[in-house]
Amino acid sequence: MTVAEALNGAGIEAREARLLLAAATGFSEASVLAYPERDLPPAAEMQFREFVQRRGRGEPVAYILGRKEFYGIELAVNPAVLIPRPETELLVDLALQRGFSSVVDLGTGSGAIALALKRHRPDARVVAVEASAAALAVARRNAVKHALEIDFRHGRWFEPLAGERFDLIVANPPYVVEGDPHLAGLQFEPLGALVSGADGLDAIREIVGGAPRHLQRGGWLLLEHGMGQEAAVRELFLQAGLEEVGSCPDLARIPRVAGGKVK
After folding, report:
1. Total domain count, the chain
2. What are the tens digits of pLDDT across the range 10-22?
3. pLDDT score at 144
4. For residues 252 and 263, what is the distance between their CA atoms, to the nearest angstrom?
5. Can you spell out the DSSP letters for 93-123?
6. H or E stretch including 232?
7. Position 15 in a domain
8. What are the backbone dihedrals phi and psi of residue 240, each rounded to the nearest 5 degrees, phi first?
9. pLDDT band of 142, cuts 50, 70, 90
10. Are residue 25 and residue 153 in the same domain, yes or no?
11. 34 and 112 in one domain?
12. Which sign does the torsion angle of CA 218, 259, 204, 73 carry?
């Protein structure tokens, strides 16, 4: 079987097929495109078939490959962690627009946000909290791989942060409504990192309510939320006494990241 025959017969999206074939063969994606006549070694052909079958069952490419790029950092991922989304890079962008010497990332998952912030603010103290021990293990491996010093804590939201305050709190919490039909396409990802109660706001309520007790004077809370949640999230920020409350849109012009500061 040649490269071209493998790609043409894959039956999946073309870019995904190229990525999976590159991983199966050890070729670069550019090489896969440049040499369609190249014969595949039998072992690579078998590996590619397995990858395609997994993708055909709906498994995300990131889990098949075991990696996903976020903010220019290649992260190890597996089904213990949510796959980092491009829209979450907005949260990092907004965080880096602010001055801070200490930041905590709540629900760090793969460590994506914490690692991006540490890479761009190497002198800042970065704490990352995660309730899932399996996810925390992935985040620790990513930090070691990229030689980034993160203070990891095991626990739920503010539980492992008693008495501590930060210049900045960031979070990409679960915000999908229970029973949302879109969950059918996310069956490989950890449900606890996606779903948050009947209105999708349970985690956001807990984070916003606890944030003032863990922010320094003038400190900011930035968190990602779902489409159509901006008004409810704004009200939660105001109820918590936060000021300068607003929500920034992502590249699709959907309000995506809410922010507010303490006095």
Report:
1. 2
2. 999 999 999 999 9
3. 98
4. 32
5. HHHHTS--SEEEEES-TTTHHHHHHHHH-TT
6. helix 230-239
7. yes
8. -80, 0
9. very high
10. no
11. no
12. negative
Indicate whether this model's pTM tops 0.85. yes
User: In this structure, what DSSP letter does residue 177 have?
Assistant: P
In this prediction, residue 233 carries a pLDDT of 98
Determine, yes or no, domain membership for 65: no
Q: Is the pLDDT of residue 35 over 90?
A: no
203 contacts: CB under 8 Å, gap ≥ 6: 107, 157, 173, 174, 175, 196, 197
Mean pLDDT of 81-97: 97
Domain that holds residue 29: 3-57
Looking at the predicted structure, is the pLDDT value of residue 25 above 90? yes
Q: What per-residue confidence (pLDDT) applies to 229? A: 97
pLDDT at 66: 97
User: Does residue 20 form part of some domain?
Assistant: yes
CA dihedral over 122, 127, 133, 134, signed as positive or negative: negative
What dihedral angle (degrees, nearest 10) is formed by the CA atoms of 132, 135, 136, 139?
-160
Sheet arrangement for strand 243-249: 151-154, 125-130, 102-106, 166-171, 215-224, 255-261, 243-249
pLDDT of amino acid 95: 98
Q: Which two tokens stand for residue 126?
A: 């970065």
What is the mean pLDDT of the segment spanning 161-177? 97
pLDDT of amino acid 43: 96
The C-alpha torsion from 169 through 173 and 175 to 181, rounded to 10°, is 150
Helices (H) and strands (E) counted in the chain, each on its own, are 10, 9
Say if residue 110 is in the same domain as residue 211.
yes
Mean confidence (pLDDT) of the chain = 96
Q: Which long-range contacts (CB under 8 A, 24 or more apart) does 194-200 make?
A: 194/82, 199/232, 200/174, 200/175, 200/176, 200/226, 200/229
Question: DSSP readout, 135-146?
Answer: HHHHHHHHHHHT
Quote the DSSP letter at residue 161.
G
Residue 153 lies in a domain: yes
